[in-house]
């Protein structure tokens, strides 16, 4: 099997490895598309330390090629996707069967690999971390990023007014096309919102934290779900009372999809959002598997929009990008 190996903080390379034998409860999948996330960069560069060498990646889509004897579903030949499965930068992946989600016929491999992790994230952020209400003013940092675009669409579907932060006019246009009522430069957030937001969704961290607090209305909620600019410095929680009895939460997806029932029900809801048009499939930029380092450089430079995908070389095991349509009667 071909995998991308993180040799150290600066080096990603394509190598050959032996296939991993299946254990009880596992399935083998021919990878059609693997999602690239900023978390992958943070793990490689030390924000969330890993032991080198290792194979990055935690989400993707593909076709089941083998199942352990005790696995009844999914079945060999089934189109599936997954998140939270390590070593997905490869042409085959081994995953616990319960973490593998069957793909509806209407959802392509690339759409699934592009939306699963970020879509599930946007769902729990808008329903559990803070339950968006009609009429809420919501701030979404990095509004043209993968999660930012989906957060905007879901918050708008729930009746919120959404203001996003962006770094370029091109990103502002993309954010507004996703439904944002206004897209502003990061440095303009304070003068634009100033104590009026019911919630701020902040994936940037260090450089936006104080502006996020300043944007909140009394009893507002700051949801810190990432740290692309670095971790927030030590913070005195006693500040939250005088500036408005504010709430801060630092959620992570795995605690919201930690059981088979929660994962599969949330995935079904996500696919329903795609079918009904509540969510638009992300714009994707694709790279060959061998060009994973180039994909990381592009994402790290913040020059990208939407979602980046790695595509392993086609194999005879990979199914078409969409399930075959039934023949007309």
TrEMBL record:
<dbReference type="InterPro" id="IPR013149">
    <property type="entry name" value="ADH-like_C"/>
</dbReference>
<dbReference type="InterPro" id="IPR047618">
    <property type="entry name" value="QOR-like"/>
</dbReference>
<dbReference type="InterPro" id="IPR013154">
    <property type="entry name" value="ADH-like_N"/>
</dbReference>
<keyword id="KW-0521">NADP</keyword>
<protein>
    <submittedName>
        <fullName>NADPH2:quinone reductase</fullName>
    </submittedName>
</protein>
<dbReference type="InterPro" id="IPR011032">
    <property type="entry name" value="GroES-like_sf"/>
</dbReference>
<dbReference type="Pfam" id="PF00107">
    <property type="entry name" value="ADH_zinc_N"/>
</dbReference>
<feature type="domain" description="Enoyl reductase (ER)">
    <location>
        <begin position="8"/>
        <end position="310"/>
    </location>
</feature>
<dbReference type="InterPro" id="IPR036291">
    <property type="entry name" value="NAD(P)-bd_dom_sf"/>
</dbReference>
<dbReference type="Pfam" id="PF08240">
    <property type="entry name" value="ADH_N"/>
</dbReference>
<keyword id="KW-0560">Oxidoreductase</keyword>
<dbReference type="InterPro" id="IPR020843">
    <property type="entry name" value="ER"/>
</dbReference>
């Amino acid at each position: 099997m071909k995998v991308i190996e993180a040799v150290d903080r600066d080096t990603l390379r394509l190598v050959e490895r032996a296939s991993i034998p299946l254990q009880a409860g596992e399935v083998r999948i021919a990878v059609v598309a693997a999602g690239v996330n900023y978390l992958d960069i943070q793990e490689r560069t030390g924000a969330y330390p890993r032991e080198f060498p290792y194979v990055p990646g935690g989400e993707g889509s593909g076709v089941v090629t083998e199942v352990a004897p005790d696995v009844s579903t999914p079945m060999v030949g089934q189109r599936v996707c997954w998140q939270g499965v390590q070593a997905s930068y490869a042409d085959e992946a081994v995953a616990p069967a319960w973490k593998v989600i069957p793909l509806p016929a209407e959802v392509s491999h690339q759409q699934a690999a592009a939306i699963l992790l970020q879509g599930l994230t946007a769902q729990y952020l808008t329903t559990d971390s803070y339950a968006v209400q009609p009429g809420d003013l919501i701030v979404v940092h990095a509004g043209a990023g993968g999660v930012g675009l989906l957060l905007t669409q879901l918050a708008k579907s729930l009746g919120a007014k959404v203001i996003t932060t962006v770094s370029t006019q091109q990103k502002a246009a993309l954010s507004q096309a996703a439904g944002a009522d206004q897209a502003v430069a990061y440095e303009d957030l304070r003068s634009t919102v100033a104590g009026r937001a019911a919630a701020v969704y902040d994936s940037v961290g260090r450089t936006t934290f104080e502006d996020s607090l300043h944007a909140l209305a009394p009893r507002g909620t700051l949801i810190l779900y990432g740290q692309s600019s670095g971790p927030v410095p030590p913070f005195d929680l006693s500040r939250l009372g005088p500036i408005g009895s504010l709430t801060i939460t630092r959620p992570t997806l795995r605690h919201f999809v930690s059981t088979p029932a929660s994962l599969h029900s949330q995935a079904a809801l996500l696919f329903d959002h795609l079918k009904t048009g509540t969510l638009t499939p992300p714009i994707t930029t694709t790279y060959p598997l061998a060009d994973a380092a180039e994909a990381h450089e592009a994402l790290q430079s913040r020059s990208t929009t939407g979602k980046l995908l790695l595509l392993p070389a086609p194999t005879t095991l990979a199914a078409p990008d969409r399930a075959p349509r039934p023949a007309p009667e």
